[in-house]
Amino acid sequence: PTCMISTVPTANPTNASSITYIFEFSEEVVDFTESDIKVTNGSKGEFSGSKNKYELVVTNSGSCTQTVSIAEGVCTDKAGNKNKQLEMTIVVDRVAPVLSSINVTSPKTGTYKEGQVITIVSAYSEKIYGNNSKCFTNSGSKPECNFYRHCCVRK
Asked: Whole-structure pTM over 0.90, yes or no?
């Protein structure tokens, strides 16, 4: 039988303190247990499942590269065919990015008017994703530098 591993949360990298690994076999297997799963950089938690679907919760203590694997032949289908080896690696990043600099690049007058577009360049310790502010738009593509265009609004 073949197996696929998926995770909750599904993001990779993730900042989650625990990850649920889902092992889904192509058919019902026998003799698959928690001890058949090897975990690197994490601690095994709750294990559940039956037939062709199993789940294992793995916790971590901080940023790491976490690997979960099953060796070939640890379980079989009803006909006695052995499973194939499989592993999955997730990057756990529990350290927030640090803003190292921020500069207004244009215009450089220091005086801004309502509706005027201001270009701001900020540098972070790592690539940042997303931006929840409705007033900033991220147009940067480099991990070390993120570019924003900001419009002045009167408060």
From this structure: no
